[in-house]
Amino acid sequence: MELPFPGMDPYLEAPSIWPDVHTSLIYEIRQQLQSQLGPQYTAVITPYVMLESIDIAPTRRAFPDLEVVDTDLPRGGGTAIVFEPAPITATVPIEMPTRYGRLEIRTVEHQILVTSIELLSPANKRPGPDGADGYHQKRQDFLQSTAHLLEIDLLRGGQRPRITRNLPSEPLYFVYLSRANNRPVAEICPLSLRAGIPLIPVPLRQPDPDIAMDLGAALRRVYAGAGYERRIDYRDEPPPPPLAPDDLAWLDVHLRECGLR
Q1: Contact between residue 12 and residue 220 where contact means Cβ atoms under 8 Å apart
Q2: Gap between the Cα atoms of 163 and 177, Å rounded
């Protein structure tokens, strides 16, 4: 099945799917960029592990008005105690180690870091020192370096990196590019739910020209090969956070036109 959205599919943000999407996208982008790099560069995947919290909403249980209970006494004697079941059960959020990867373009000679490509994960955006605050400090340290930084945020949830406060409106998704030779100025490309993703420039060392990342094509290839449609019910609402009413209305019309609702 083809990707049913012109750009990012918000259903891919589900916690049960996103880690696979993240890993697959990193490998697909690496292959795409590697074919454009000259012999002096190489694209390298650097793996890392983050603790991701899996939280499932509590479920309420319904109980009948009349219950038949076996009250036979055990052979050892004593009185059998019948406990009322708890009216509510809930799952405890569990932090599980999740494997991710960032993409780095390095020189073949001396392995000098030229461009770091970061596809944000939920752990990068959760509040606190081990999440968004820690990532912000890591990014600040990186911005003092001589390498370019390219960030891709395809997750609506969580705490956004501190770069979008001057935008006229909050984008659903965005791409952020900080060129080492143009700091503190950064290039920000907001991405909407309804439009395709433009080509993204990936800078190299001067005087070499930028190469192009086709993130939309990478998404489509990953979706077509992974069988995500078997795990997604497009009749449901997208995973949280909730979409704005106009985006939700557009999504409903779009999925009906695609025959998925």
Answers
A1: no
A2: 11
Rg (CA), the chain: 24
Domain residue limits, the chain? 10-50+96-257
243 touches 251 (CB < 8 A): yes
Give yes or no for a contact between 234 and 255, defined as CB atoms under 8 angstroms apart: yes
pLDDT, tens digit (0-9, with 9 covering 90-100), for 129-151? 777 777 888 888 888 899 999 99
Question: Would the pTM count as exceeding 0.85?
Answer: no
* Residue count of the chain: 261
Q: In this structure, are residues 177 and 201 in contact, taking their beta carbons and an 8 Å threshold?
A: yes
